[in-house]
Amino acid sequence: MEKSWLLAFLLLFHVMLRGAATTVGVGVGIGVGVGVGNAGGGVWIGGGINDPPPSGTAFSNINSAYIALQAWKSAINDDPSKILDTWVGTDVCSYKGIFCAVPRGDDGLGISPGPVVAGIDLNHANLQGTLVKELSVLADMSLLHLNSNRFSGTVPDSFRDLTSLQELDLSNNQFSGPFPAITLYIPNLIYLDLRFNSFSGPIPEDLFNKRLDAIFLNNNQFSGQIPQNLGNSPASVINLANNQLTGTIPASFGLMSSRLKEILFLNNQLTGCIPEEVGLFTDMEVFDVSYNSLMGHLPDTISCLREIEVLNLAHNKLSGDLPDLVCSLRSLLNLTLAYNFLSGFSQECTKLLIRNVGFDFSLNCIPGRVMQRPQPECSGIPGGGLSCLRIPAAQPLLCGSLGMKIDANLGPSSP
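^ Cell wall hydroxyproline-rich glycoprotein, sequence as received from the core. Prediction below:
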């Protein structure tokens, strides 16, 4: 399958971590070759390789995997690429899309219990069917990638037993129903990808209490407000775009991890202001709130986003002037402000075109500029009475002191 080298490397790294404290040497076999190795971290088997069947202590692991995978095969009713034609016999390590590893034993002698299924990569296989509870016996599996298939139904409750699973990718399938809450009970999950399905209903609060590094929920039918504990999430990437979310961006937004690199709220039904705390994320690279109904002036703290590359505020009801320093951001590649009610920007912003930065300010209310809204539309600015919470400061806010000022105004009882 695609990205097999990356998959195998990640799986091998995971197996090595779970092995004994001292390991020497690594053996690797990917996709179309057979791995060889020393008495080290592990030997790679699988991805469609015709390896000899396991023997001895390895049999119990592989036999359980065989029963589980055959149960899953029976629940798949369309396989146009004939991938499952290789899922024959008890040697599951020879099945296409199944990756095995031989971990070093933890008995101090380096004796391995035999190969285990360490990962499944069936991305873009176009399989139609459902997931089965029997997959939960694959307790050594760290990656389950099922992007771009036609799986439907629900995620089995037994998936809570996948104690080694770190990455779950169910994107671009036909899953529906409420958020699959069972995914929140997978103990070591760090990557959750549910995008491009038909999940609906509210997003559970517990999602943002999990130690997930990546959360992809975009292009579903989630509704209701973004949970107020959004700020608890340690994730570096969160994508909630293209849903039916309402309400405001939670006040806890500014309490999120400083590791946040990308956050996307676009194409929902959000209202209220852009939080001033956005300036805390000095390492953020993508901030997209376009196609909502946000109002009020842009916070000056946007100019603190020193690593921002994509800043998309288009198709909202924002007003006032664009803060001068925003156009001086050194990493900026694209600044989109179209379809708002902004009334001006500084000369510095005109230099963006010289810097070859994408800059779209069309259909605003900026005097003397082309492609602006007709004057009657600019006579009544939406949200004119909206009072956006601002951090009080006697002098212009310095980005380096932003966090201290927020803490001071939150008071000692705040988290």
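The chain has a mean pLDDT of 82.
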